[in-house]
Amino acid sequence: MSAEPAGSHPQPRVPGGILVRAESLSFAYGPEPVLLDVGLEVRSSEFVALVGPNGSGKSTLLKLLLGTLEPGAGRVELLGRTPRDVDDRWRVGYVPQRPSLMSEVPATVEEIVAAGRLRRRGWWRGMTSGDRDAVGHAIDSVGLGSLATKPLHELSIGQQQRAFIARAFAGEPELLVLDEPIAGVDAESQRRFRDSLVHLIRHHGAGVLLVSHELAAVADVIDRVVVLKRRVVFDGTPAELAERGVSLGIHRDDLPLWLEDLR
């Protein structure tokens, strides 16, 4: 994994450019297929939600897209290359389910977020004014400016999750992948989460791929919804999904149940 070379600039972001693409993707753990002939793409400045019932293969698909698993069939392109050939990983931000930090490590919000800058600048280089500005910007974008010097373990679960999202933002990723980032967090954190994603997309041109069962907070800003049940059974706008009987805003708590019946 390499950082951005000193004195260089990020590759220009092309509006509508494909950041990640899966074609005819299949995968199995042993004899049981998990994914079958899956196709998916996310472009810059696009907000895509990936949804499906429990066990539908969502987390496995993320691992394939990010290169931590190899497909059984089909292919993945990440930033125009196979995932294993992407050495400038700072261009991809990832927030896993329930990231955690051991409570005995007294890291502050600012220190956690600054670690996200490390992937871009390299551990051997000191923080520049540009790095510090990016860290402060990321913290402010998730509404944690007044808590920047607080130890992370003293924050609420929702605030901690926002700090990890800010850590991903600090690297100024072109693609941000989030796996159930707001499960069980408070309404204020969900609102801040929505606003920060809108900021990243509109002001930085990033593409976002969000896996979540809780989409009501972001339903009004999602461009496309992909419903996965081993195969992709739907790929379209929230309005088109509503025509199939599933409304992201109305089915706030029972979305997985409604998706069970979607064919």
What does this protein look like?
The structure is a single chain. With 263 residues, this protein is α/β, with parallel strands linked by helices. It has a domain of 170 residues: Rossmann fold (3-Layer(aba) Sandwich), CATH 3.40.50.300. It contains 7 helices and 9 strands. The protein has a 6-stranded mixed beta sheet, with helices on both faces. A 3-stranded antiparallel beta sheet has the order 2-1-4, with helices on one face. The longest helix is centred in the last third of the chain and has 18 residues. The relative contact order is 0.18.
Distance between the termini: 41 Å
**Which secondary-structure class do the elements indicate?**
alpha/beta
Unreliable spans are 1-15
The helical percent reads 25-40%
Listing every helix as H and every strand as E from the N terminus to the C terminus, the arrangement reads EEEHEEHHHEHEEEHH
The count of helical stretches stands at 7
User: Can you tell me the CATH topology of the domain at 18-102 and 176-260?
Assistant: Rossmann fold
Mean pLDDT: 83
* Fraction of residues in β-strands: 15-25%
Rg from alpha-carbon coordinates:
18 Å
The count of strands amounts to 9
Task: Supply the CATH architecture of the domain at 18-102 and 176-260.
Answer: 3-Layer(aba) Sandwich
